[in-house]
Amino acid sequence: MGLLFIFISSFLITTISPSYGYDPLDPHANITITWDLMIDNGDTYDVKVSLLNFQLFRHIEQPGWKLSWTWKGDEAIWGIWGAEAIQQGNCSRIKGPVLPHCCEKQPVIVDLMPGARYNKQVANCCKGGVLTSMTQDHSMYVAALRMNVNKASGNNTSDGFMPVNFNLGLPGYTCGDPFQVPPSKFKEDGSRRWTQVLDTWNVTCIYSQFRASPTPKCCVSLSAFYNNTIVPCPQCSCNCQELAGAKCVKSAKALPMLELPHANEEEPQPLVRCSKHMCPIRVHWHVKQSYREYWRVKITITNLNFVKNYSKWNLVVLHPNFRNVTQVFSFNYHPLSPYGNINDTGMFWGIPYYNEMLLQSGPSGNVQTEMLLQKDPGTFTFREGWTFPRRISFNGDECVMPPPDEYPRLPNSGHSATVRPLIILLLLLLLVVVL
């Protein structure tokens, strides 16, 4: 019996790891790095490196990706276009009047900023490391760069063109080993001619919320028109005020007294408004109104982080009535159907130049929408919390939901009507006994 228990425990630990990157709402989500060997020049070779964000709703915002790898030999990057290495490194082994762009064993490559010099640009470059999700913007989910690389000493095999140990430099992302795929093809001469590269390798990178942060980043509160109770975010959803290292402020007036992150910090640690949940983002779902054939929901996203604006944010909601969404106000909306005909997931994001930027905590630190949904006579009900979402994620990270037994409930009018006559009857009996 003891051996059986050990075997089952080991199986669960190894197969259901919290660090695994599978997301049931986006089962094929990944960022793919494509390494195309374009030309072999003898002593050097040209490569094109592409990053493709194959994630439906998770995006990469500033400060952006930082691509790195490990060379197998003593390679050096002579020239690079569409990006740059953050360190040149020690190039003393290279003899000549001109030094390479980067001689690091593990180069770290960053995207160029918009407006870079034209002679340094290539197609799909110069976005500051930002990659949008496939659903939000098809024009910005790809990044690319080109390099001229000095061959390593004794490199006589095709496998020698491919480095190892790829990393995106983003919290939560883990990259696998390179694997060879059919060579990439490109259209030329008005799509009448196809050309192809010499060799192509792919590297697949997946995201894990557990690896990205040991604590959640958002929580959900609930309310409804038929109940005076507002269900708050669960206590200590993202952190607890009592824990060491927890930073929060009671009001914006206290900010000058605090040591805020320096400007050169790429990703400042959250500095949130003091609350029982301590989350940077709070999503409030309010069942606002009921009509004969429709019902209305109001969604409010509040930024409680004093040191960060969220650009190109998005919200993904799982609810069984989303197949009957009639109209969404103030937000963009797109249904997600990762499992064919099951239409119960929707994605919301801001309208450009209106509310696509969620400002830091303050009077303007929130965005709101209202949504009209048609009632399905076979399934719709206000009972047992059916009108509340099953799951909500902000920027791809799942939010902490209140427990179902705390959801606002319909008033139990039948119970009240039964109790009231009983109370009156007991009072009359008491009066009879006293008299």
Put the structure in a nutshell.
InterPro entries: COB_C, COBRA_pln. The chain has three helices and 28 strands. The protein is mainly beta and 435 residues long.
Low-confidence runs (pLDDT<50, min 5 residues)? Answer: 1-19, 414-419
Principal-axis shape:
elongated
State mean pLDDT (0 to 100 scale): 86
- What is the SS-derived class? mainly beta
SS strand fraction: 25-35%
Rounded to the nearest angstrom, the radius of gyration is 28 Å
In helices, the fraction of residues equals under 10%
Number of helices: 3
Q: How many runs of DSSP E, i.e. beta strands?
A: 28
Number of domains: 2
- Give a quick account of the main beta sheet: strands, pairing sense, barrel closure: 7 strands, antiparallel
Termini separation comes to 72 Å
Q: Architecture of the largest domain in CATH? A: Sandwich
List the helices and strands and how they pair.
Layout: H1 2-15, E1 30-40, E2 44-54, E3 66-70, E4 76-81, E5 83-85, E6 108-111, E7 142-150, E8 164-167, E9 173-175, E10 179-181, E11 185-188, E12 193-196, E13 199-207, H2 209-212, E14 218-224, E15 227-231, E16 248-249, E17 272-273, E18 281-290, E19 294-303, E20 310-311, E21 314-318, E22 325-329, E23 332-336, E24 345-349, E25 357-358, E26 366-374, E27 391-394, E28 397-398, H3 413-434
Parallel strand pairs: 14-18, 16-17
Antiparallel strand pairs: 1-2, 1-13, 2-7, 3-6, 3-8, 4-7, 5-6, 9-13, 10-13, 11-12, 14-15, 18-19, 19-26, 20-25, 21-24, 21-27, 22-26, 23-24, 27-28
